[in-house]
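Okay, is this right?
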Amino acid sequence: MQSALTPKVAFTRLTTRRRRARIRRANLLTPNDDRDLFEEEAQPDLFGAEREPAYRPDPDKVRRRLQKILAEAGAAQKPPWERTTVSLYRIIFPQMTNWLPDDEGAQLRFEFETELARLEAA
């Protein structure tokens, strides 16, 4: 059976808890710690004017890579790649054409689909 606390014991426990809390807070911020917890520069501005430049691939390199893939497909009598490579090219080829001018990209996509259809029919 638990006995009721006397007011003096309850006060002592309360002040002891407060002292312990003050000591813990004091240990977190030592006198050598000059941090300002509410410093404005602590978090970068989410909508700041400074942005890293977006990655823009070189259109000439993209064009050469796409033409190389088309040349491989055009020179082949049967699919020159494994299924996984064909699946990969079906995804990345159209995406890569997005870095080129619209007309050129559309023409390359058309040529690629034509070559794949020819190879699948063979």
Q: What stands out?
A: The chain has a mean pLDDT of 82. Residues 59-121 form one domain.
